[in-house]
Structures are given as structure tokens and as C-alpha cells.
Sequence to fold (188 residues):
Amino acid sequence: MRIPVNLSSQPFQRNRAMMVASAAVAALLTLVLVLMIYLAIDDRNQMRETREALDKTQQQLAAISAEQAKLEAGIRKPENAEVFERSILLNTLLSRKGISWTRLFSDLEEVLPHNVRLVSVRPQVNAQNAVVLDMVVGSQSPEPVIDLLKRLEDSKLFSSAALSSSLPPSQTDPLYRYRVSVNYAQKL
Fold:
């Protein structure tokens, strides 16, 4: 009878593949750790640079705001009120003068149906420096004006068309008259 006897304290095992794989995973994890540390340091440096740039910009903004407040205080003095009002008037006139009537009528010609008459048009510049047209249009029936409103809404130059009032035909005027307000995207 044979009895197997193992005289070694630890039997032989084939662990070489497992040890090589474990070493490769450890090296990969070490590489990922180094990469993460590099990215964290780089992120911290970028944050510091961003904070410095933000602080510099805020200092510039504070300096500009202080200068603007000083200039506004000088403008608001009673002895400068007349000049200030005159400059506001001139700026308003210049912004109104900046509207090109030729371009306005050319753009309106593209959207105005053939059976709608433009009775009057009054451009205005609002506080946001946008042009708003207050128009009175006339037609033999209401349908062409509805078509005009649709065309204004679909146009790239006009938006937010609103019908504010209407007048039926009279003995002296055979047209339906409508007051239309529309935003106009003409650059000043």
C-alpha cells in the first residue's frame, strides 16, 4: 500500500499568473492615483487663478462704479441740470434720427399684403433701445389685416405684433382702420 507523504510545510501551488495579474493591477491603480493627484493639483491651481482674475475684475468694477458715481454726482448738480437735459434731448433726437425710413418702408413692403394700405407709421425707440412701430393700416375687409399680422409674426425683422384698436368704415372713409403695434429689429 502506498501512502503519499508530503514533507514540505506548504504544498506547491501555481500562483505565478495570479501574482503577475495582481502586480499589473497594482501598477495600474498606482498610475490612476498619480493621475488623480495631478488633476486635483491642476484643478486647485486653476481655481486659484480664477479667483485672482475674479478679484481683479471686481476691483476694476468697483473702481469704475466709483468713477461713474462721481461723474453722475457732478452731472446731477443744479448748475449742470440744463446741460444734462439738453444732452438727453439731443441723444433722443439722434436715436430717432438713426431709424432709416427707406429701410423701414422696404421691410414693410415685403410683409404688407397688396390689399392693405399703410395709413400712418410712427417709429419709437423704447428704453431697451429697440424700435417699436405704431402703425395705422386700412383695408376693405378685416381678413387682409389678419394676414398682415401673421406675416409680421413670421418675419425675422418684426415680432410681437399687437392689434390695439379698430374703426369700421364711415361715409368719408370706406376702409376698416386698425392700429397695430409691432417690434422692429432695425439696428440703430
Q: What stands out?
A: The chain has a mean pLDDT of 87.
